[in-house]
């Protein structure tokens, strides 16, 4: 019997009202306000104060008049679409093999398959230059042995390569999840009804995993569209929307123009999310029933060898950047050959003195922002799941907004909101922390609300009938029961914040430089050793926090990402 | 004895505008102190909503709830000092059994020594001493059920609410636990409101019960009253097996009604619905329990005999249920204690009804499941 739950405590307990309005106020100030500012500003001429009469479309008109703008837009869409499609081609077979072919070490394959997501992609991007650049190891090798000149890695090919290998795990993990959690009796019943293997694949299996694949592709499209680091490192003269925003803001101090470009980019992510929503809504049959038995796995010798070889090859290629960074970080001298001639800890000694500040900053900012996001995200999940407010759509929108806004756009929004006006935060650590919190609240929100939906409302009702007030109920019952979910979300938040560059690059100041900015500066200055050492340290911390999340939840690394 | 819990004109509507539905409409009850009072009815009848209103987990649209002279209607649940056992038990998985049971005491700020003493006492009451350090997941369903009961009783509430407490247990354990609950309730001497959809459970455990249907209380009485003298055809059918025969009113005097069966037989039976003023030639429904229908001939004057044919019979172990064709209409069920010699399918025989076991109801009423 379904009963609507009423909200007795919220109407009766002033404590709840206070806590929840505080959360609402913070969101209003740090999310709704800056996003309204960026929307308004993009319709204002450069450096003009606000006035209804001065509203203009000039920044948007540049997409028609300026070839730089037009090209950046085309480039962005090209690389993002290409990366999504290529990721599908690479990730889907791997998902199928791992889920449906009997082979050893699937757990290791799943963990290694998540690794590219853990490491900030711009870090890997540079190692492709090491390999395939004008003077790259592989370029030279092929030139000398085969006499062939590889095409330049700068521009579209390199960016697409880095995006594809950095983001393909989204398709892999989501498709794997759908394939391994779909009720096998769906396919078995099709088989009993006399469907051929091909027919079953076409009419049952593929439709079952389509929503997951589509979701994976949309995530990759959005991530690629919003990524700053990779095109900044590999782009050269090849501008995309994010680098164009950076160029406008840091090069020309034109916040309003940057805002307009960010809005255009947001429009594309919004459209892709809307299409995804339409697709998954129409196919509202995601099976989450309890599985009675595992799907049968193919165990023919041929298919097993093929599957294993494929997975190992993909992972090897995808993890080349990480391996190369690790090696470079210990390299002392590079001779003319492919490998360094001597190894030392010199790079680490160097970054521990030169980049000590950024390391501290990164840890501080990520910790503070994670804590704040955890508190806010949990409160919002509480309100949303326990249906305390009639206007839930407001909450949904607030949660989705930072998700739709690419990192660099969030940076621009926060900068527009707090570099002038009543509250000036630019140049402080707070502006970074605020941006981090706003960007990552959805992570906590999702895992916390998933945890909360699992909790029987009778748990809280029992507490109330036992004589506990709302405050006692939420601190002794609701919160402890949600804690594993919150912690998992917090670990992901923490580790992705450590690797954050797209927002940081807009908002950092000389005093509040982060590790990623330091790495970026090293890369731009061609100081590969220190960049790699810093990158390796970053990867280690990120991995440690992911493993911690695993331990806390008893789940695999991959499932953490599927949740997000 | 005086009424401890008074529910007066209670109404609860869910949703707003066009989607508004009344889950509870004008429910009035008076529960005596120390009594085990049951709300019984089919799912969706509003019994759980009524219980949740009394607990304070829902807010009434209108009406009043008074307990021991104190107006409960607007009081939040944690100020009502009542104990509640949930269908899912709602034991806290992150706490040990001791902490689970101690929860209400600690919420009241009881000193630690008293907490320990009271928890030990109540665990002994439910017969589960020694499980303090376990986690809820390590207990069986029946044990969890008793811990939930202990948690609701430990702080000495004046009112105990039980929401389908046995529905997650298997059949045998259910019977055992309902006797346990009754014993514990008697020993604690606590006024108790019990919600169930299981008529057997309700009949066996209650001092009195209220049968609810479509948000309203249809009948209140002791188990025997409600079973033997149901107020409506719906109540008759919901509380066990029932036969309904079509009839036509011939006349009435006092609380007796004279009716004629389609077969032509005329009989005088008791009025089931006391508010009913039967008029001549009005349609009526006769009710009789299958266990009161006897097969075979021979009897005295208070018995009516009808010719019938055995359609089929079902062997149910303790009883044999015969389905009899009385010439049109639905078959009449007759429960016998054993297979009857000389009675076989397809053979004409006679059935006997004791007039004292028959009740007449107005109109052509049908059981709840069939009217909906």
Quick summary:
Chain A has 564 residues and is mainly alpha-helical.
Structure characterization notes:
The complex is a heterodimer of chains A (564) and B (372). With 564 residues, chain A is mostly helical. In chain A, 75% of the residues lie in helices and 1% in strands. Chain A contains 25 helices and two strands. Chain A is globular. The model of chain A is unreliable at 1-12 and 284-292 (pLDDT under 50). By secondary structure, chain B is α+β, with helices and mostly antiparallel strands. In chain B, helix 2 (97-107) crosses helix 3 and helix 3 packs across helix 4. The longest helix of chain B is centred in the middle third of the chain and has 18 residues, at 171-188. Chain B is elongated, with a radius of gyration of 25 Å.
Order of helices and strands of chain B: EEEHEEEHHHEHEHEEHHEEEEEEEEEEH
Structural class based on helices, strands and sheet pairing of chain B: alpha+beta
Major sheet attributes of chain A = 2 strands, antiparallel
Structural class based on helices, strands and sheet pairing of chain A? mainly alpha
Features:
heterodimer; A: 564 residues; mainly alpha; B: 372 residues; five-stranded mixed barrel; 9 helices; 20 strands; 24% helix; elongated
Secondary-structure topology with pairs:
The complex is a heterodimer of chains A (564) and B (372).
Chain A: H1 8-12, H2 14-41, H3 58-65, H4 67-100, H5 106-118, H6 121-132, H7 137-146, H8 156-181, H9 184-192, H10 197-226, H11 229-234, H12 241-252, H13 255-282, H14 301-330, E1 331-334, E2 340-343, H15 346-354, H16 356-385, H17 392-404, H18 407-418, H19 429-453, H20 457-465, H21 470-498, H22 504-507, H23 515-524, H24 528-553, H25 557-563
Helix pairs in contact in A: 2-18, 3-4, 4-8, 4-10, 4-12, 4-14, 5-8, 5-14, 6-8, 6-14, 8-10, 8-25, 9-10, 10-13, 12-13, 13-18, 14-24, 15-24, 16-19, 16-21, 16-23, 17-19, 18-19, 19-21, 20-21, 21-24, 23-24
Chain B: E1 3-14, E2 21-32, E3 36-40, H1 47-55, E4 62-67, E5 70-71, E6 82-85, H2 97-107, H3 112-125, H4 141-153, E7 159-163, H5 171-188, E8 191-196, H6 199-205, E9 208-213, E10 216-221, H7 223-228, H8 233-238, E11 243-253, E12 256-260, E13 266-271, E14 283-288, E15 293-295, E16 303-315, E17 320-325, E18 332-336, E19 348-354, E20 359-362, H9 368-371
Parallel strand pairs in B: 3-8, 3-9, 6-7, 7-8, 13-20
Antiparallel strand pairs in B: 1-2, 1-4, 4-5, 9-10, 11-12, 11-14, 12-13, 14-20, 15-19, 16-17, 16-19, 17-18
Helix pairs in contact in B: 2-3, 2-4, 3-4, 4-5
